[in-house]
Specification:
alpha+beta, 5 strands, two-stranded antiparallel ribbon, 140 residues
Length: 140
């Protein structure tokens, strides 16, 4: 497998590093396309996968929506909004996850993903505003 640094790979890696918002592959492609319309979606998706496989970026499997990509590769945790599917880093203290679970049903454990779920402040505010509008129409 060819692992040379191409211009396309540099463009994709630089874009993910600059976005800092846990974008999905489609979002990365849309941002790159604005400046480099000659790069195909398939190329961007393949490069993202290669970068994640080589641990230059982190591929985050999320409960809602498509996988996201993170410029941070250090151990850290995430929270995803169940409404808009946005993902953010969060600080967590004292999480006790066994590194070698006793019962693996024959699996060889190669890693784990922990993603908290919730509703982001933007969606929570939108929900409150929607309820106010709906409730005010009851009085008309």
């Amino acid at each position: 497998m060819d692992k040379r640094m191409t211009i396309q790979k540099m463009i994709v890696e630089k874009k993910v590093m600059s976005m800092k918002n846990h974008p999905c592959a489609e979002e990365v492609f849309q941002e790159i396309y604005k400046e480099h319309p000659h790069i195909s979606k398939a190329t961007v998706f393949r490069i993202l996968s290669d970068l994640a496989d080589s641990e230059k970026i982190y591929r985050l499997h999320t409960p809602y929506g498509a996988n996201c990509f993170d410029y941070r590769t250090d151990p850290h945790y995430h929270i995803q909004c169940s409404k808009c599917e946005s993902v953010e880093d969060i600080e967590v203290r004292d999480v006790q996850i066994p590194q070698n679970p006793l019962e693996t049903n024959g699996f060889t454990v190669t890693g784990y993903t922990l993603v908290y779920e919730g509703i982001c402040p933007h969606c929570k505010e939108a929900s409150i505003e929607q309820n106010i509008v709906e409730n005010s129409s009851d009085f008309q």
